[in-house]
Amino acid sequence: MTLKQIKHYFHLINEYCNGYFYTKQWLKWTNSKDKLTISYKDYPNPSNWKLIYFRGHPIQTRFFEALYKLKTDKNNKKNFIHKKSNSVKMLK
Q1: Contact assessment for residue 51 and residue 45, using Cβ atoms and an 8 Å cutoff
Q2: In 3D, which of 91, 77, 68, 10 has the Cα closest to residue 43?
Q3: 7 half-sphere exposure, CB direction, 13 A CA radius
Q4: Which among 7, 9, 62, 86 is least buried, having the fewest CB atoms inside 10 angstroms?
């Protein structure tokens, strides 16, 4: 997926889901056909989501997994912010 598509999916999750959101993705992936590279730093972090954990996958070591608690305020849909952070803490 492109960054635009990823951001759109996270926007939909933010709009329509409540509770928790689990994701498992490549730490870094390059699509050889279009030379697009996506890393864990490129995934959006909506400001109204609380990160429960972010860690390398214990078996598939080229993946990360993350769990968020969604704090969705259906009256305020401006919580979606795409943040890039170089200081993501990996849990063991």
Answers
A1: yes
A2: 10
A3: 10
A4: 86
